[in-house]
Design goal:
Helix content is 27%, strand content 30%. With 174 residues, it is of the alpha+beta class. The strands form two sheets. Strands 2, 3, 5, 8 and 9 form a five-stranded antiparallel β-sheet that branches. The protein has a four-stranded antiparallel β-sheet with strand order 1-4-7-6, with no helix packed on it.
Length: 174
């Protein structure tokens, strides 16, 4: 069974791409009615789902979709992860946990149409929409923030050491 599933498979089509253990990109097309998105993984509290602006370059090219493994190209950081830390998750109130099989969210296309600009979805002629979601383990953003802080502290110590060395050299030459 796929890691990501819709309960009403005959009404909408889902594609997903696992980027790393903490981030999965999901594309749902022909979403017309309320549907339930299931993430079949051990339950972890910090998995959230975010609506992404609609883009033709959403998935990484030359990588397979709908496989339960990571792409050949390992992706540690794409750039939007820190933004997800401050962004409000989509359908947060509908998130339900079943400790035996995973998490599910109720995906409502009407809610998306009513609350988001059309840059977040693609409207089809039959009234259905295509959306792109990011399933993200929010705690991972704290690692990135920690790495940034560590890098800045390291830079400050390096500059301080360089300044001390410069001052010692200029004092000896005087």
């Amino acid at each position: 069974a796929n890691l990501i599933q819709l309960t009403k498979k005959n009404e909408a089509h889902i594609d997903f791409q696992i980027l790393n253990p903490t981030k999965i990109k999901i594309s749902i097309s022909k979403l017309k009615n309320i549907n339930i998105l299931k993430f079949l993984n051990n339950f972890q509290n910090n998995w959230n789902i975010y609506l992404s602006k609609y883009s033709n370059d959403f998935f990484i090219r030359n990588e397979q979709l709908n496989i339960n493994s990571y792409p050949n190209k390992k992706i540690f950081f794409e750039g939007d992860e820190l933004q997800l830390l401050t962004k409000k998750p989509l359908f947060e109130k509908s998130q339900k946990n079943n400790k035996s099989w995973g998490i599910q969210w109720i995906i409502d296309p009407q809610y998306i149409k009513d609350n988001y600009s059309d840059s977040y979805y693609n409207q089809n002629s039959d009234g259905s929409i295509n959306i792109q979601l990011i399933l993200y383990f929010k705690t991972q953003s704290y690692l990135y923030i920690g790495l940034i802080i560590f890098g800045l502290i390291l830079l400050v110590f390096f500059l301080y050491f360089c300044l001390l060395t410069y001052l010692k050299i200029t004092r000896k030459s005087n």
